[in-house]
Amino acid sequence: MINIAAIEYYLPKNILTNEDIANEFPEWNAEKITAKIGVESRHVADASQTALDLAYEACEKLFRTYDKSKIDFILFCTQSPDYFLPTTACILQDRLDLPKNIGALDFNLGCSGFVYGLTLAKGLISIGLAKNILLVTSDTYTKFLDKNDKSNRSIFGDGAAVTIVEKDDSKADFQYVVGTDGAGYNNLIVENGGARNASEKPVLYMKGPKIFTFAIENIPALMNDTLEKNKLRLEDIDLFVFHQASSYMLNYLKNLCNIPDEKFFLDMKDIGNTVSASIPIALKLALDQGKIKEGFKVMVAGFGVGYSWGAGILEF
Ligand SMILES: CC(C)(COP(=O)(O)OP(=O)(O)OC[C@H]1O[C@@H](n2cnc3c(N)ncnc32)[C@H](O)[C@@H]1OP(=O)(O)O)[C@@H](O)C(=O)NCCC(=O)NCCS
């Protein structure tokens, strides 16, 4: 039904290391951060660099090997858009000099955004509106972080991934599972800057332990529901690529879900948690490292802010 034809990503040049954080917060040290969240360094956008700019750079890399004239729809997932309006996807269409007879829209999701993007792409392909979709997942959460917030500055990094989702009838028609629980909305939130609290500076606030509890209570069922819906067993999946939230959370989930080490992809050491870009970046790393081979079935699962979650299976 759908095929991932190409993935590229772009990370901003500025790097914030654990040593930099430990220098600012002497009560922490670099090793403690690595041990807890599995991140040694993360990339931070310049003051002038936005999610659109990062996405544009990723597209430039993509178009070295992919013919951009094939693109017939842009889906742009971000929670740090350049403007309230217009949508970032419209500006990207123009900046990339793509034809005017294509569709383009933004959608606002965080860590579940890539999986939701796949479901939207599949829907657009199913109704015959598109065949080659540019799915952009790009965020600059660091712009929302308070400089004194050492925990979130350790976890989050900026980045953009661009994925071509194309119609391919040789691939299996795997089904997706999604979920929503807005009761958890204020456990990961940027309260200010929107219409409700317009005058204050936007600052990100996360209750890490609440997000952790949400994930461990919901993600094992998400995995099992996705397997069941596709009439597969855990053994049938060749690799699990979950949202790269923090190694603390992912290792806990891996054990809870009984996923063997060799089938569980975790590589966020030099990248951090890049929100909706984390799964496609991880897929690209896994492909480049030879951990995804032709014919592999890969389960992707995203979960977080909202609360929002989703999972599906990709055939490579
Ligand atoms: C954020 C998170 C790492 C905090 O861990 P926790 O054990 O739940 O948090 P606590 O506040 O009880 O802190 C426990 C210890 O971890 C340390 N810690 C907390 N955040 C840390 C971080 N980002 N890096 C390093 N150490 C951290 C605390 O300092 C504390 O250390 P101490 O015992 O020496 O005082 C954890 O809750 C988590 O991974 N949550 C999921 C958050 C996430 O991935 N969000 C992304 C959006 S999906």
Which key phrases capture this entry?
Peroxisomal Thiolase, Chain A, domain 1, binds coenzyme A, single chain, alpha/beta, 9 helices, four-stranded mixed β-sheet, five-stranded mixed β-sheet, 316 residues
Question: Could you please describe the fold and organization of this structure?
Answer:
This protein is an alpha/beta fold. It has 2 domains: 2-167, Thiolase/Chalcone synthase (Peroxisomal Thiolase, Chain A, domain 1); 177-315, Peroxisomal Thiolase, Chain A, domain 1, CATH 3.40.47. The chain is 31% helix and 23% strand. It has a 5-stranded mixed β-sheet with strand order 1-7-6-4-5, sandwiched between helices. The longest helix has 22 residues, at 208-229. The radius of gyration is 19 Å and the shape is globular. The chain starts with a strand and ends with a strand. The model has no long low-confidence stretch (mean pLDDT 97). The structure holds coenzyme A (COA). Coenzyme A binds next to helix 2, helix 6, helix 7 and helix 8.
